[in-house]
Each structure stands twice: as structure tokens, then as C-alpha cells.
Amino acid sequence: MKAEHLEQARGIISARRNRARTMNDERFAEINSRIPEIAEINRQLFQTSRSIMQIIQSGESTEKRIEELKSQNQQAQLMVRNLLKAYGYPENYLDMEYVCPKCSDTGYSAGTYCSCLTSLAAQIAANDLNRNAQINLCSFDSFDLSYYRGRKTESGYDCFKAMEMIYNFCKEYAAHFSKDSPSILMYGNTGLGKTHLSLSIASAVLEKGFSVLYDSVINFLRQVENEHFGRDQSGNDTLSMLLECDLLILDDLGTEFDTPFYQSAIYNIINTRMNRSLPTIISTNMDWNGISHKYDERITSRIFATYVNHHFVGYDVRILKAQQKRSGSKN
Ligand SMILES: Nc1ncnc2c1ncn2[C@@H]1O[C@H](COP(=O)(O)OP(=O)(O)OP(=O)(O)O)[C@@H](O)[C@H]1O
Ligand SMILES: [Mg+2]
Ligand SMILES: [Zn+2]
User: Could you tell me if the CB of 194 is within 6 A of ligand 1?
Assistant: First the structure.
């Protein structure tokens, strides 16, 4: 984990803690002014805790006295709760409300980083990686099915119907995404909307608060390679993030060089995520033959067996859009 991301996460968590304290102070002020009985009890509670402090500091052997004061304290708190209820407030109105009760918004619990701190840092790191991607440019709303209308595949299959099914599947997938969602293989010729739909899924799933990584296979592998061979000194651990994020989107599989390092990195990523049953979306221009040809059977057999396969069909939308622009019929 990168120090910079951890630092940012710490800042956010300490702001949460301050917010919890301020809110608690405000509630105390409100209740003290509205309910005099509680104001009086709070004053006594304050006295009690001061007495306990003094006894502890004096070092006297007064365990019995401290126990007495503690039980007084508990009784007083019970009275406060009852009074709050009687006045129509929730009985825990004066309790501290932390975002993470486990660590009381300190970021540390049981002598180590609390999970709220590490998961926040991971989220920040993921957003950092996605920043360069056009993740916000593509959405389900801007996906136009009319580009596929009136076209047939070589085998006579209706492109609109096929793409409508894929579009609906992706929309549902994003809406109901969970860490148990299946993996998807999107394959087909260039310009048919594979990247567009995978980015649409990415932004919807990110919005739900999951960690999502999106980039081309080439970019991910280069980054992993640079870190592996020490050429990148940033302290990033891209490989771990690829193995752990809730949803990984590998765009343009097959455009990377055939090196043993890349082959084994791809195998490691796909295989590890499969074993952890974490969903991955792969898009590629290769068909099944191409994929089987290029990759080890250990990878391909698993992809074909466990991924939901979607064959993108139609006519290159980049070209269609350019034609429409030239004829001025659509922008
Ligand atoms: N159905 C569609 N409606 C609107 N825009 C689309 C649609 N399909 C594709 N596009 C746009 O056309 C361009 C090419 O689409 P995209 O990049 O998704 O294709 P691709 O299948 O990933 O192609 P490649 O295999 O070359 O990566 C993008 O700008 C995308 O936003
Ligand atoms: Mg693409
Ligand atoms: Zn915590």
C-alpha cells in the first residue's frame, strides 16, 4: 500500500472523528438546555469522572471506591437514557456516533490498521489508477442500439436482437453487481461497443462503492512489469490491486506482446481471481480460435468454462458515427 494513499485515508478518517465529536458536543448542548434533569446528571457524571481521575493519580489503594463510582456512573447513564426516551429522543442520542464503531474512527484497532483505513486507502488508490481512463465518458444512456438495426451477421443472425440482449445483460449486471457476480468475456470486431459497455459497467459499479480497476491489458502489464523489475519506485503494488479489487476490467486482451512474463502475469491474474471467485470482465478482438491459439490451455479452458460469453456483432460504430457526422444527420 502506498504511503500517500494511506495518508489521504487517514485524513478522511480523522475528519470523520472530528465530525462525530462536534455532533456529540452539539447534542449535549441541546439536551442540557432542554432537559434540566439530564443537565444535572451530566454535571454529576463530570464530577464523578474527575474524582476517579484524582483517585487514580493519587495512587491510593482505593479500588473499592473506584468500583463504587463506576457503578454510580452506570446508573446515571441508565437514568439519562430513560429520561431521553421520556422526552421523545432516541435513548442513544448522546452516544458517540462513529462511522466505524470498531476503531471509533481512529483508523487503528487491536494494535494495527483498522479495515476501514485499509479499504479506504485501496479505494483511493483505485480511483488514482482510473483517473486516466475515460471511465466517465461512457454510460448506458449514451449507448444507442439503433446502430445495430437492419444488419445481419454472416450467418443471418439479427444484430439488433443480439446486441439488445447484450446491452440488457450488462445493465442488469451493473445494477445487481456483487462480488459473486460472474465474469464476462466480450469478444468481437473493432468498434462494436465492447469498451463502451465495459466502461458503463465500471462507472455504475464504482458508484455503488465497489473497487473497480479498468485499463487495457497492455497498460496493466507494463505497470506490473515495471514494478516487478524495480523500474517503478513509487511503491505501488498494482499486481495486488489487480488480484484483489472487486471488479477488474481487462480491455483489449491479445494486443500485448508474447513474453513469458506477460503470459504468466495474465495467467496469475485470471487464475487467482477465479479461485477467489472475484468477477473479471475481459474484452478482446480475438474469437475463440484466436484466444485458444494465443494462450495456454490452462487459461482458455477456464475462461470458456466459467465466463459468460458475449459475441458483439454489427458494423463498426466508429465508422457509422463518422459517416453520420459528415452527412450531418446525427452528432
Ligand atoms: N451502441 C453505441 N452507441 C453509441 N456509441 C457507441 C456505440 N458503440 C460504440 N460506440 C462508440 O464508438 C466508439 C467505439 O466503440 P468501442 O470503443 O466501445 O468499441 P470496441 O468494441 O471496444 O472496439 P475495439 O475492439 O476497437 O476496442 C466509442 O467512441 C464508443 O463510445
Ligand atoms: Mg475497445
Ligand atoms: Zn475502523
Answer: yes
- CATH number for position 301: 3.40.50.300
Q: Give residue-wise pLDDT tens across range 190-224.
A: 999 999 999 999 888 887 878 888 888 998 999 89
- Of 62, 86, 116, which residue constitutes the final position of a domain? 116
Could you read off the pLDDT of 106-123 as tens digits, one per residue?
A: 999 888 889 899 888 887
Same domain, 23 and 77: yes
Residues 74 and 142 both lie in one domain: no
How many structural domains compose the chain? 2
Same domain, 169 and 306: yes
Report if residue 308 sits inside a domain. Answer: yes
Domain assignment present for 146: yes
Q: Say yes or no: CB of residue 285 within 6 Å of ligand 1.
A: yes
Any atom of ligand 1 within 6 Å of the Cβ of 201: no
From atom 9 of ligand 1, which residue's Cα is the shortest distance away? 193
- Is the full-model pTM beyond 0.90? no
CA–CA gap between residue 248 and residue 198 (Å, rounded): 10
Alpha-helix residue ranges (DSSP H) falling in the chain: 3-34, 36-58, 63-86, 115-130, 159-175, 194-207, 217-228, 238-244, 260-275, 288-294, 297-306, 317-327
